[in-house]
Every structure is written in structure tokens, then in C-alpha cells.
């Protein structure tokens, strides 16, 4: 009887303590920008880095969103530019304003196995994908004769990790001036649809200085060759190489008049 009561009390304490631990995490699993001034971008890089992008969520969930949104880009054959963005979260845990937390036991079970190995060592998420949590999305832009980018469509993940196509209306439904991707799930996938202004409980916007080319060391450190699939605009192995400056042909292609996609 004594052992049973002790186990019961220990379980109750754990169920109450885990959400508190989730809310007190540091951002140690986030990439840190290299010190010093970044290299002067090409005209295309400047256009991409000057295009404000917002990342948000309709539910409160664990994990700190990083200070930098990294990207890789690739030109299309019809004048469009495909930009893959990488959003870094410090962790992926089931605690927050969601049904898993409300019911306690499901969230505790997921946290014990998926996030942690029974409170000790890495869980399935860390072993399979690497540290932190990285979510990828892709936005396709048309390019005007003046070199300005115009949002056409996008791609992101749903909560079940399946890809979802986002049209222009999806990307601009929250803010018509700035494309916004957002999550409806504790696990941060950014393929949410149907939100209106005011529906997001968190939203962070990135602009010049906070949108940067993806460095090879970050790609390797976070194993981006095997995660954040919707952001991939180059072969997986190429993510681990330094981005090349746009070729002259690509620059000429991008300055063609905008075309319907």
C-alpha cells in the first residue's frame, strides 16, 4: 500500500511539474548568427531579405522561436523565384493550449517518449531529426520588371507532416502586406489555413537583418538535409554547401516581366 501511494503521488507531481519545466526552457537549441556584418547580398538576395515574412500560431505551445529566419532560393524556368525558409524553435513539446495538455496524461506520455527518454537522455524526436525543432516552408514569388517580389503561392506542413499547398489568399489572410505562415498544432508545423486577423496568439515578423542565407554549418548542425522538407529548393546534399551567388542568366531571367503562374 505504501509503495502504491508513493507511486501515485510521484506520478501526480510529475504531471504537474512537466508543464512548468516546459515553460522554463532556454533557447540553447537555437542557431546563433555569426558575429560581424553579413556579406553584401546580390540584388536578388536583397529583395528576398527585404521581403517581410511573419511566423505565428493559433495555439500557445512550448518552444522559443529563433531570432533569424534562414533561407535558400532557386530560380524557376518561367521567371519565378522559389524561396525555402527555415524557422527554428528551441524545442517541440506537447505542452500548451491544446487538448493534449488539457487532458494531461496524453501530453505526459508524448513528452516521456517523443521529447525525452523517460526524463533522461534524448527522446525519439532528437534521435531521429536532431536538436531543437526546425519547420520549413516555401514561398514562390513572381518578379516584376523593377525587381520587386510578389507572392504567388506556398508550401508547408500540416500537423500530420503531410504537405499542404497554400495559395496567395492563405498567405495574406492575416496580413495583406506581409505573407504569414502559422501553426494550428503544438508541434509547430506551419501549414495552417483559414485564420483571420486577430486569430493568432503569437506572431513574429522578420525583415532585413533577420532573414539571412542558410549557412552550411547551421544546415549540418541541425541536419536540415533530412528535415523541414517543404523548404527544400535544392538537393539535400546542396544544403550543406555555401549558397552560390545568382548566375547572370538567373538575374536576367528574374528581370523578365511578371508572368501568371
Describe this structure in words.
This protein has 261 residues and is α+β, with helices and mostly antiparallel strands. The protein is 26% helix and 22% strand. It is built from 8 helices and 9 strands. The protein has helices spanning 2-23, 43-50, 99-102, 105-115, 124-129, 168-172, 216-221, 248-254; strands spanning 53-57, 69-75, 81-89, 133-143, 149-157, 163-167, 180-183, 202-206, 211-213. The longest helix has 22 residues, at 2-23. It starts with a helix and ends in a 7-residue tail after the last helix.
DSSP E strands, number: 9
Shape: globular
Task: Indicate the low-confidence ranges by residue numbers.
Answer: 1-7, 9-27, 117-125, 247-261
Mean pLDDT: 75
Proportion in β-strands? 15-25%
Produce the secondary structure layout.
Layout: H1 2-23, H2 43-50, E1 53-57, E2 69-75, E3 81-89, H3 99-102, H4 105-115, H5 124-129, E4 133-143, E5 149-157, E6 163-167, H6 168-172, E7 180-183, E8 202-206, E9 211-213, H7 216-221, H8 248-254
Parallel strand pairs: 1-7, 2-9
Antiparallel strand pairs: 1-8, 2-3, 3-4, 4-5, 5-6
Amino acid at each position: 500500500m505504501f509503495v502504491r501511494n508513493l507511486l501515485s503521488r510521484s506520478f501526480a507531481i510529475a504531471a504537474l511539474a512537466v508543464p512548468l519545466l516546459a515553460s522554463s526552457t532556454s533557447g540553447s537549441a537555437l542557431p546563433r548568427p555569426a558575429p560581424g556584418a553579413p556579406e553584401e547580398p546580390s540584388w536578388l538576395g536583397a529583395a528576398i531579405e527585404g521581403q517581410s515574412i511573419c511566423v505565428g500560431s493559433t495555439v500557445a505551445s512550448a518552444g522559443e522561436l529563433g531570432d533569424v529566419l534562414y533561407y535558400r532560393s532557386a530560380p524557376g524556368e518561367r521567371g519565378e523565384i522559389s524561396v525555402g525558409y527555415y524557422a527554428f524553435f528551441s524545442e517541440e513539446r506537447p505542452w500548451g493550449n491544446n487538448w493534449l495538455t488539457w487532458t494531461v496524461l496524453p501530453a505526459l506520455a508524448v513528452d516521456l517518449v517523443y521529447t525525452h527518454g523517460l526524463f533522461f537522455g534524448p527522446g525519439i524526436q532528437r534521435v531521429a531529426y536532431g536538436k531543437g525543432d526546425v519547420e520549413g516552408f516555401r514561398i514562390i514569388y513572381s518578379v516584376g520588371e523593377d525587381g520587386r517580389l510578389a507572392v504567388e503561392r506556398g508550401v508547408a506542413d500540416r500537423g500530420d507532416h503531410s504537405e499542404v499547398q497554400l495559395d496567395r489568399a492563405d498567405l495574406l489572410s492575416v496580413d495583406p502586406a506581409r505573407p504569414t505562415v502559422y501553426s494550428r498544432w503544438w508541434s509547430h508545423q506551419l501549414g495552417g489555413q483559414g485564420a483571420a486577423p486577430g486569430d493568432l496568439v503569437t506572431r513574429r515578423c522578420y525583415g532585413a537583418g533577420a532573414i539571412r542565407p542558410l549557412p552550411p554549418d547551421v544546415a549540418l548542425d541541425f541536419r536540415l538535409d533530412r528535415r523541414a522538407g517543404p523548404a527544400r529548393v535544392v538537393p539535400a546534399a546542396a544544403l550543406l554547401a555555401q549558397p552560390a551567388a545568382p548566375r547572370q542568366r538567373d538575374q536576367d531571367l528574374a528581370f523578365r516581366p511578371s508572368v501568371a503562374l
